[in-house]
Every structure is written in structure tokens, then in C-alpha cells.
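Question: Now follow the chain.
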Amino acid sequence: MLIKIVLIALVLFMIVNLFMAMRVMIKNDTTKGPMSKYIGRRVLTSAIIVILILIAIGTGLITPNPRPY
């Protein structure tokens, strides 16, 4: 259950960074930092999510859905 909460929190963090990058892009506001900083955080968060899912499946913390065939 804890791993699912961590994954949901990481997805929410990724979505927040998406909207922060969009705000910088639309307003052309350089005081908040470059847009690439937020996009880089999204990529890093995505990589962490994939790695956590693979580790959780490998250790048995979560189980994938059974095959449909």
C-alpha cells in the first residue's frame, strides 16, 4: 500500500511540474527559472516511477494484472 501512495505522489509531482513549465512558457517568465528545469524534473520523475514499478513487481510488493489469454 505504501508503494502505491509513493507512486501517486510522484505522478502528482510530475503533473505539477508540467503545469509550472506551461506557465513559464505562456508568460515567458524567466524569474521562475528556465522551462527546461521543470521539464527535466518531469523526465527524472518518470524514470524514478518506472524503476520503482519494476522493483515493486520484482520483489512482489505489487502484482500485475493477469494475462488476458
